[in-house]
Amino acid sequence: MADPVLPDDGVSLYEGLMTTRALRRFTDETVDDATVTAILRAAQQGPSGGNIQPWQFVVVTDATARHAVGELYRRCYERYEAAMLPTVPPFRDERDESAWKRTLGASRHLAAHLGEAPVLVVVCMADIDLTLHDDRGPLDIGTTYASAYPAVQNLMLAARSFGLGSVLTTVVRIEQASLRDQLGIPASQQIIALVPIGHPTGRFGVAPRRPASAVTHWNRWGERRRD
Questions:
Q1: CATH number of domain containing 172
Q2: Of 8, 100, 182, 191, whose Cβ has the fewest other Cβ atoms within 10 Å?
Q3: How far is Cα of residue 226 from the mean position of the Cα atoms in its chain?
Q4: What is the pTM of this model?
């Protein structure tokens, strides 16, 4: 299988990092297997603690299977939204409210159309606990998820390099046992992400975020610097 050709858009690595935002609407254009394989090779380069590489990828391109996953996702999302909406705090201003409503609308669209995305990547992780112990007790070095999500980020950045949009979703975990049954995934695997990939109808761009200076402390907590 020949390597696919990257689009000649001159996007640097830094620009790709800055503009890989969540894209939830896709055209019906297909994504060829060679491109998917190239994206997965980049995902496989994600770092992990001790190089344990705990992830597995289930790539769903069959139309019937995609729509079945999409229906399950829709059910999960409807349960999630019903529980989430009452918890939304008051908005600071109209701008914040407008941005929130746009995200909600995009999320609802994804829930209604996820099965139409040409590629669904279900990311699994071995359900293991790597906590070590010594004579003073457990050695907490963090969750195993920290060794899996970098691969998911690599997946999405690689998709961006081919002009493809994606979004990291986890709501399907609400009924992950059903998704395991649908796709033959062993019970020993946690489903940690579902990433739809396709040609976006929207544009890549810098997502609204707080400035780095608002969340950065230099040398000691509370020591700030301006941008």
A1: 3.40.109.10
A2: 8
A3: 31
A4: 0.93
Cβ partners under 8 Å of residue 165, min gap 6: 23, 25, 26, 159, 197, 198, 199, 200, 202, 204
What range does the domain containing 19 cover? Answer: 13-130+140-215
How many domains is the chain partitioned into structurally? 1
pLDDT in tens, the chain (227 residues): 667 777 666 688 999 999 999 999 999 999 999 999 999 999 999 999 999 999 999 999 999 999 999 999 999 999 999 999 999 999 999 999 999 999 999 999 999 999 999 999 999 999 988 899 999 999 999 999 999 999 999 999 999 999 999 999 999 999 999 999 999 999 999 999 999 999 999 999 999 899 999 999 999 999 999 76
Residue 75 located in a structural domain: yes
Q: What digits encode the pLDDT tens for the residues 172-203?
A: 999 999 999 999 999 999 999 999 999 999 99
Q: Are 168 and 197 in contact, with CB atoms under 8 Å apart?
A: no
Half-sphere exposure of 114 (CA within 13 A, CB side): 29
Cα R_g (the chain), whole angstroms: 19
Q: Is residue 125 part of a domain?
A: yes
Residue 7 domain-assigned (yes or no): no
Whose CA is closest to 39, among 195, 201, 145?
A: 195
* Any domain includes 6: no
Residues 6+ apart with CB under 8 A from 157: 16, 17, 20, 42
